[in-house]
Design goal:
Elements lengths: L6 H7 L3 E6 L4 E4 L1 H7 L11 H4 L1 H13 L3 E7 L4 E11 L2 E11 H9 L2 H16 L3 E6 L4 E4 L1 H7 L3 H4 L4 H6 L7 H8 L3 E7 L4 E11 L5 E10 L1 H34 L7 H15 L5 E4 L6 H10 L8 E5 L5 H9 E2 L12 E2 L1 H4 L4 E5 L6 H13 L1 E2 L8 E2 L3 E6 L3 H6 L5 H7 L2 E4 L7 H18 L8 H7 L7 H15 L6 H15 L3 H4 L7 H19 L3 H8 L3 H10 L4
Parallel strand pairs: 11-18, 11-19, 12-15, 15-18
Antiparallel strand pairs: 1-2, 1-5, 3-4, 4-5, 6-7, 6-10, 8-9, 9-10, 13-14, 16-17
Helix pairs in contact: 12-13, 19-21, 20-22, 21-22, 24-25, 25-26
């Protein structure tokens, strides 16, 4: 007679351990697989509370009995056994009767899990990602021993995975595979850490970052190390530094060439102040800036600087047009700047005339002595700056003109604005970029270069071979040059022409002594003569001042401004004293 499998056989011969408790947690059933896994040996624990016999397993069972909810996949990590268990409540007619706890050893569970298709697919994907990374990756356990490295790490370090897996990072340092251990630093700090490593075998510099993974107790379970090859980046950095040095060298050479070009244009810039001004001027030229205002005393070279700005700009191929706003009466200045239609005023040409704005189309218009421009013309200039359009005198149509505006003055425009002699809105439009030229007395380092420049120029012009000694040049350094560069140029020209010898030292020194005397006459000189006629003596002083002003200033308007008298008075006095 065949025997049948009954429920007891099923209970005893299942591959999982099974333990049953009543609703109070008292063990009522336990199969032999459970006894083997839990190493209990016999059934004498039947009738005892599970918390007393198996406290680690009893906790999830007691939780299930308390909540009447199943607990699945719970891990028990004990000294005798490491388990994965499922606890299910037994409920009948809405009453809790107890709990069934099934479990198997963790190792068996993991082996089974690894055979599943889902696990194998996921593992294959992770392996692909791990080995496809261009960065090196190391995985170490909480003791610093190597669990795995990817293919990129093998290449970067010149090693095989089989040579390092299972070994401590400290041992690898001792074997001189690399010089520093980021793992050791992570183990000490329990924080993400980055170090630069040098790999002697491959001669590579690696940026290694170690990131710890902590368990529930705050201890390190794993350390993941990411390695990035910095060798190429270091090479690029060195190449960049070399290119920067080369760039600086080229800039220095370009600066020297620029200074040579400046010298050919009668601009000497050996002093630091002038170098700063010229660097700023060239920068404004290259960016195509307009509405540049050049300030400086008369004779400091404002016109030369304006030409330099034009020559180094993108407008260099177009005209550079210059006009002195102090040299013409108001009606003539307007006609010169804006042009006029035929018959616009008495004496106007029958054909009309093109103004300087139109002549400067595409180029640069240099308005010298802008501070002397009449108020009416200031408003017309402002209108042009606003819409780039002009209208000829007597005309009705607007003409579109595109030119860069550079203005210059030796006056204090802000003071003129306060005196209502210069439009405030025009002042702010013109001073977008301000270049202030220092007087020659503040450019001592430039004097020797200027002397050589003008000496060569006038030697060539007058077919001479005059010379000057360093001592004579030093004597010029003690002079204040109220007429600035124009005065120095005049002194050198007179010396070349008038000196009886090839050495112009005596003539130069005499000239500056006379100038000093004219500027600061001693009190006793007034009484050197027995002539006490006040009118005659005043005329002598006036004549000296007129001569001095004639040397310092270019126009009668400038002379009038410097002397504090009207322009017609200047003309009359020049004629009176026959000063040419």
């Amino acid at each position: 007679m065949d025997e049948f499998i009954n429920f007891e056989d099923i209970f005893q011969f299942t591959s999982n351990g099974v333990l049953v408790t009543d609703k109070h947690g008292v063990i009522t059933h336990i199969n032999r697989k459970a006894l083997a896994i839990l190493k209990l040996g016999d059934r004498r624990h039947m009738g005892e509370n599970i918390l007393d016999v198996l406290p680690l397993t009893g906790n999830p069972v007691q939780q299930c009995l308390t909540t009447s909810r199943p607990i699945l996949g719970y891990q028990v990590l004990g000294k005798k056994a490491q388990l994965v268990l499922n606890v299910t409540p037994v409920v009948k007619n809405s009453s809790l009767l107890g709990a069934i706890c099934t479990f198997q050893e963790l190792s068996v569970f993991e082996t089974s899990a690894k055979k599943t298709r889902g696990y194998q697919t996921l593992n294959r994907r992770l392996e692909t990602i791990f080995h496809s990374s261009s960065d090196g990756i190391w995985v170490c356990d909480g003791n610093g021993s190597v669990i795995s490295i990817n293919k990129a790490s093998e290449v970067l370090n010149g090693i095989k995975a089989s040579e390092v897996v299972g070994k401590s990072l400290d041992d690898l340092i001792d074997s001189e595979i690399f010089d520093k251990s980021v793992t050791r630093k992570v183990l000490e700090s329990k924080q993400k850490t980055t170090v630069m490593q040098f790999i002697a075998k491959t001669q590579k510099f690696l940026l290694s970052t170690g990131t710890p993974s902590l368990n529930e107790d705050g201890e390190i379970d794993l350390i993941v190390i990411n390695e990035r090859d910095m060798t190429e980046l270091n090479t690029l950095r060195r190449q960049f530094e070399q290119s920067q040095k080369a760039k600086e060298k080229y800039q220095e050479e370009l600066s020297d060439l620029t200074l040579m070009e400046l010298e050919r244009n009668s601009i000497i810039a050996d002093s630091s102040k002038m170098r700063q001004i010229l660097q700023m001027s060239l920068k404004l030229s290259h960016i195509g800036a307009s509405n540049i205002l050049i300030l400086g005393e008369s004779g400091t070279g404002k016109g030369l600087l304006a030409k330099l700005i034009h020559k180094n700009s993108q407008r260099r191929a177009k005209p550079f047009v210059e006009i002195n706003c102090a040299a013409l009466p108001e009606h003539l200045l307007e006609a010169e700047l804006f042009g006029y239609e035929k018959g616009a005023f008495t004496g106007a040409s029958d054909k009309g005339k093109v103004g300087l704005f139109e002549v400067a189309q595409g180029g640069t218009l240099f308005l010298d002595e802008i501070g002397d421009m009449p108020i009416l013309l200031q408003s017309k200039l402002l209108k042009y700056l606003d819409n780039q359009e002009i209208r000829r005198v007597g005309g009705t149509e607007s003409i579109k003109v595109s030119c860069s505006i550079v203005a210059a003055t030796n006056q204090n425009l802000s003071e003129l604005v306060k005196k209502k002699q210069f439009r405030e809105d025009l002042y702010y439009r013109l001073n977008s970029f301000i270049l202030e030229l220092p007087p020659l007395k503040e450019r001592g380092a430039d004097i020797a270069g200027l002397v050589r420049l003008y000496l060569n120029e006038f030697n060539h012009k007058y077919k001479c071979n005059k010379k000057i000694s360093p001592m004579a040049i030093r004597s010029l350094l003690t002079y204040s040059f109220p007429g600035n560069i124009r005065e120095l140029k005049s002194i050198i020209e007179n010396a070349v022409v008038m000196s009886e010898t090839n050495q112009i030292d005596d003539f130069v020194q005499t000239s500056i002594l006379e100038e000093k005397s004219a500027l600061h006459p001693q009190k006793q000189q007034i009484f050197d003569s027995d002539d006490l006629n006040l009118s005659r003596r005043l005329e002598e002083v006036e004549a000296q001042l007129m001569q001095r002003a004639k040397k310092r200033f270019r126009t009668t308007r400038e002379m009038a401004s410097g002397l504090g008298i009207s322009q017609p008075s200047v003309v009359r006095k020049l004629q009176k004293y026959k000063i040419q």
